[in-house]
Design goal:
It is a single chain. The chain has 13 helices and ten strands. It is α+β, with helices and mostly antiparallel strands. It has two domains: 30 residues, no CATH class; 243 residues, 3-Layer(aba) Sandwich (Peroxisomal Thiolase, Chain A, domain 1), CATH 3.40.47.10. α5 packs across α10 and α9 packs parallel to α10. The relative contact order is 0.18.
Amino acid sequence: MLHDPHTPNIARESVLAAGLSARVPAHTVSLACISSNMAATQIADMIRLQRISIGIAGGVDTCSDPPIRLSPNFRRALVRWQKIRKPAQMLPELRRLKNFEFADLALDAPSVAEFSNGKTMGEGCEILAQRVGVSRAEADHYAARSHALAIKGQQEKFFTDNIIPVQLPPAFGTIEQDDGPRADTTEEKLAKLSPAFDRTFGVNTAGNSSFLTDGASAMLMMSLQKAKDLGYRARAILVDHVYAAGDVLSEMLSGPAFTIPLLLKRNKLKISDIGVWEIHEAFASQMVANLKLIACKSFAQERLGLSEAAGEIPLDKLNVYGGSLSIGHPFGATGVRLLFTATKRMEQEGARYAVVSGCAAGGHGSAILLANPQVL
């Protein structure tokens, strides 16, 4: 998501830094919050086409150290100045400086906003929440739920075997778990926070919105036959996937509502057939809005061309160990984290199917169907 111009193909740099063979090709895909979902489904398709037999899907974002640029006018001036070879060429550039304004010296920091309409994700989420009818109380209730469930997951050590401890300078203390979940989060405390994007009527606050963080993820994928040949036990089968997009303004964060019903219909499944649901929590109000849309008959008919709504996703099967609201959201890494969580839950709960879904910039959405090879 936040691309560093020095490493435009971060996948290749990751392969080399990991000590894999330099003959292993690697390419980077970018679809904001669902980038590593796209990486995983591309690998699955390549395996099905027998182009490859093994692949690694992953993602990374370092939101604490974003690539910050100079202003456009300043950048263009620097490009011209580096072409100066003679003193006579300098005079016209010095004359241009009188047209510079103080704003031209400002830094151009990346923003989580749509290029097409200038709206941030939070502003887009306010539009969605108002259109669907999500209250502040509903958003705060969902956010408090996410933190409580993430704390429960940490206490039960659900995440432990999916996290590789890291040591960071200068103290090089070991980080063994995410620091986002807050045990003291309550609906009452969340209700005291001011709206962050629409100061007058907004429902989204710093407390019920996902926070940007650093993170990386990786997942080994291969064909079933290759897994057998190498002596691996398949933990999940990626059965099918759907990508879609809606209106970039009014439906910016409606990805799950656009993709989940189509995925279920294409695979002749009902919501009741799915034992595990993992959906990216960009905002609490986004989650509530998507759950409402998935259960809405008029949305199914008018926007998806379906005769009936998919139905209500049961909360006792949805994100039962929290999500991006509490764990954090490093754009590129979140998709594989969702897949890992869904896979582990399927194993523990003996579920036959899992669905992983998310929204992303540009009005995009994805839904991935996983199957449990031990239950099929």
